[in-house]
Amino acid sequence: MNQQIKKLNTLDASMLVMGSMIGSGIFLVSSEVARQISSPYMWLGTWILTSFLTITGAYAYGKLSTLFPQTGGQYIYLKEAYSPMTGFLFGWTTFLVIQTGTIAAVAVAFAKYTGFLFPTWINEDAILFNYINSQQLLAAALIALLTYFNLKGISFASFIQNLFTFTKIGAIIVLILIGFYVGFQNDWLHFTDFFREVKTFDTPTQQLIPIDTFTLASLFGVAMIGPLFSSSAWNNVTFASQDFEDPQKTIAKGLVYGSALVCLLYILTNIAYLGILPLDGNPSGETAYERGIMFASQDRLGSAALQSVFGTIGATLMAIFIMISTFGCNNGIILAGGRLFEAMAQDKLFFSKAAHLNKNGAPAYSLIIQGIWAILLCFSGGYGTLLDFTVFAILLFYFLTVMSLYKEKISKGLLSNTNKLLFAVYLLILIAIAANLLYVKTLSSTIGLILVISGVPFYYIMKRNQSKD
Questions:
Q1: Per-residue pLDDT reduced to its tens digit, 299-333
Q2: Nearest residue to 404 (alpha-carbon basis) of 95, 76, 123
Q3: Dihedral of CA 60/83/332/399: which sign?
């Protein structure tokens, strides 16, 4: 049976990487970036630097995947490089909020855009206990449905993943072509004064104000949070390594090919946005064009761009695109997360039944436990806050994972000088971003560390249970 489920190839790996990365972020976060740093070259620069970090990180993880092709991926890397506790703390934080919180957030994004099409039935009006609404119920139903799909085995889940990933990539390409066409038509009007002075939007005064060099560096780091999260989840493919044929090669290729293509699409999409809309705008503007990128209604920049070109039908089309995008994104995240918790359970560091496979070769209990917690987060109203708390923690685990390549017992001295330099630059940039977050978002960064450390007593409880077996 195990041989029957190891059928996925490099294309499947690339589709899982791309499908997990592309959710709703690319259609939303660029507006917030523009409010932080309102100069075209800096605005686009956040996406270019994010692309460097994403592709370099994926390349580093690809090297680790050739050394440790087991199911569990990053959990295995950290366990082998440092200690079982380090691996557990990564898995603990991932289960507590990173993976499940992302699943819940993406599901709610799907429901919100469904509500755009069917506002009478799907909205935020409370229908139960003066709190639960139809958007939350739809989000929960989506998670349950995708969990069911994944229970049917990796081949079926991969078919769903590839179908929706191809569809949403096509939708993004259409958006890019429209933006480039409009840009050529208006002689790329919004690219004039591309290197103008950087300003930031001051909420109390509702004005753009100039900033000094130190503040610019700090705001640039903060502005990168949105692009970084829009470009995250590429590491999820490593969790399901054993579901791929020849994982030592397939995973590494899928990581680099998939992440590089997504980063290219993201940069082109932002150029397309600037081809259609001005970067600055009027927060009180009556049209999408008057509001610009900076003040797109509810930050729905993708909808604003198409609405500016096609009117209401454009906004409707974008809502459908984002529903497709979030559906495929969540399928990939659910698929991968179940494999991570399966690997932890095999080490007796998670619920023991999570290690069991059903008749389709899927880690049924792992997927169900993940799904139940993600559904609860849909109704908590706090998953967005929890994700914000874990920004610092996620950077910490990225740092530790790539840093492990410098350990002799991991790389066996085979890391080239070029790679050492490349990864050193990557690690230094991560340190700078993390230090800036600790400075600017001290409370949330500290809480993020507390969430990680809170797993320590649970690790010892699990270890004690191991000794009883």
A1: 889 889 999 999 989 989 888 988 898 998 899 89
A2: 76
A3: negative
